[in-house]
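# nightly structure sweep
# worker-07 picked up a monomer target from the shared queue
# config: single-sequence mode, recycle default, output format = structure tokens
# input follows
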Amino acid sequence: MRALTWQGTRNVRVQSVPDPQVEEPTDVVVKVTSTGICGSDLHLYSVMGPFIDAGDILGHEAMGFVEEVGSEVSTLRPGDRVVVPFNVSCGNCYMCDQGLQSQCETTQVREYGKGAALFGYTKLYGQVPGGQAEYLRVPFGDTLPVKVPKGPPDERYVYLSDVLPTAWQAVEYADIPPGGSVTVLGLGPIGQMAARIALHRGAGLVVGVDPVAARRESAAERGVHTMDPEKHGKDLADAIRQLTHGRGTDSVIDAVGMEAHGTRLAAGMQRATALLPDALARPLMEHAGIDRLDALHSAIDIVRRGGTISVSGVYGGAVDPMPLLTLFDKQVQLRMGQANVRSWVDDILPLLDDADPLGVEGFATHTMPLEEAPRAYAMFQAKEDGMIKTLLKP
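# output follows
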């Protein structure tokens, strides 16, 4: 089959690789019809090379049709249409029973002290072959894939793999009061969808912050009050307080993470670490890594006293400096973590009907053949051509 493979920092390539096979009686093999590029894929593209091997298959946002089922799979059969959550979770352990599929005890990567394995996402999370490919082996066939109706276009359902549940959890964790206010930092795919979900769930004011004009325009069309952080500079938080009786918004969602434009020192350290030999870079990243924290520090400044910060953007630093005095003094509540996809599916599925209140159809700004994935990654990294969300078609 053809699959997108990692070859080095900012170097990905579509290659012919062996087809996946049923390895366990609970496996299914899915013929992929659509697969997304996630903002966190850019972390692999630019930063996380020390934990990836050349030839690893990327991608964790896939859907398609069941091609083959293992002998113990009872709920699916060939031809069923499914979406594959990005968490590799068993659905039956203690953590899965708590709704914490991202902490699944069956697939936890204990070698690195990490939570549940993820599709297409480094040795830290299991080095499981990903879904930017023609076929994908999916374990736990009876409990992991989400069966969806045939007929509507893929774009109606493909975001159940990551974008929708990640954005839904971001809003849930933000604990926005009825009619309250929230600032969304970063209007990439997760930030865009989180803003839509916040408005759908009754937020009175959603402020979206992003330096890219095309992203602000897209959010503004959905009723988001948008702001350019480069225009306001250090006065951004003051400008938001002016919209909220001088207090700041009730909640802030950080949908940026470690790709934020922050200090030159942190950015330089990230780039330098990515260029080191793996044997040197791995311990440095695990024990001395530092993120660019501009977005998170902005969130702490923007949120009102007693408010809540929800972090959905991925951070990877081990020694990030945090303004604990300010967090404590402002009595800020802070929630974060990988989305527990299966926990939110039942809430989201009814919204994917013909009414489409979240606007999932048309959400993708670009649809490209799998063979053009290297170009798509480069465009997404450079934020070219108004790219916000790209779907690849194997």
